Amino acid sequence: MRVILISMCIAGGIMTCNAQNSKRNQQDFDDFRNEINKDFDNFRSEITQDFIDFLRNPWKDFEMTAPVPKPQIEPIPPIDFPIDDKHKNLPLVDKPIVIDNVIKPLPIIPQPEPIEPIDEIPVVTEEESLSFEFFGTACKVRYVSETNYRINSITENSIADAFTLLATDKYDNLIYDCLKIRSDLQLCDWAYLLFLKSMAETACGKNTNEATLLMAYVYLQSGYKMRLAHDGTKLYMLYSSRHAIFGKPSYYLDGISFYGLEDLPSNLRISNASFPEEQSLSLIINQQPLLTVDVSDKRSIASTRYSSFTFSSEINKNLLAFYSTYPSSYYNEDFMTQWAQYANTPIAPNVAESLYPSIRKAVAGLSELEAVNRLLNWVQTGFKYEYDDKVWGHDRSFFAEESLYYPYCDCEDRSILLSRIVRDVLKLKCILIYYPGHLAIAVRFNEDVKGDYISVNGNRFLVCDPTYIGASVGMTMPDMDNASASIIILE
Fold first, then answer.
1. Do 95 and 151 form a contact (C-beta atoms < 8 A)?
2. How far apart are the C-alpha atoms of 213 and 237, rounded to whole Å?
3. How many beta carbons lie within 10 A of that of residue 359, not counting itself?
4. Which residue has the higher pLDDT, 71 or 225?
5. DSSP code of 92?
6. Are 241 and 280 in contact (CB under 8 A)?
7. Residues 126-152: pLDDT tens digits?
8. How far is CA 179 from CA 110, 113, 116, 300, 395, in A?
9. What CA–CA distance (Å, rounded) separates 258 from 280?
10. Total-model pTM
11. pLDDT band for position 10 (cuts 50, 70, 90)
């Protein structure tokens, strides 16, 4: 019994000692973490103060740079494949197509992050909050509704004074909430910029200098590159983009184009105050924004050749409204990259849930060739072709959901939609083929398929043209100039 008691005492002593050590280790860790966070806060405060000090320097006069016009190329109208005895059941033979210009895939770039982590600040009393809608999606952030950062006059010092009042930990929870919503709603950079604009205008009123300053402050603290500018009366926030935006004037500073969310005057005074490690926004959409779903009426689209290929879908009208704001752009000074951005954008979950099961059921048991042929005919014959200039008054590319919703589409829209469905449902890789005035796709099959094909990195891609009405896989529209064509690699 004495041995047992001694053992129990020893064990108890060890447990007590371990508990004390564990408590001490936790305290050491907490102290270390607090010290690191303090260093982070101090560093962020220092560089924010440097930014404010730079704002007080005289801003320089700049003239607007003319917008980059979208290339105007005469579109090639759809052509009907001749259905006669001469062409009926014509066997396809292999025909290699040589296209030298290959556009590399667009890079996947992580979203900008704050220069140092912004932690949530615990508060004792209940905080004020700001509620607003972003494309039909209810949002709520913590916000200190003080009026002390009002801009009394548009001068360097008054703007710097107002920025100083924002640059306190009072607004850290606001930044924390905005970044959390960016993550929770899967907002791409463009969506996040519009989200901050909506938040700031709800807080300070539309078209106010204070809303611009608040948006600029949170955008800057989130890791994005921006510049403040004014015309003597109005404050502007200019954002930089990794992509050149068609048809949008800009201001050129140190080799970088800066754009505005609103119409800009032809001359501005601009501060070149910057933040370390600031990043330009990307216009690539790697994830669909998770906007509240407001479904459209169901639309049914049918193939004229294959009666079983009749599919219906419902589109999120909030997503369509967001897409209507999206600027047309290109990457790395290459106009050809503009279509990859649309084709690589994932389709919305609600559309995939309403459309893809019926497509999978229709292609079940078919060979890859037959499945693609039927989908190709569905796009060729189920959608009405019309020129963008006639419908929209200007050239406009569609994301896949837009082609499923709007009554008209053209060759590029059809190619974007078809390439998205073939990759998602059939798991076959696709490329885009751009001929001046025309866009088609090509598909890499796992089967031995004959026809017009393009070799890319040792892989055969068979031409599929959704505007060559009635043509099957492996048929190129007549009179296409391969020497002037380009291959656009998709994800």
1. no
2. 8
3. 21
4. 225
5. P
6. yes
7. 788 999 999 999 999 999 887 678 898
8. 14, 9, 13, 39, 34
9. 9
10. 0.90
11. very low
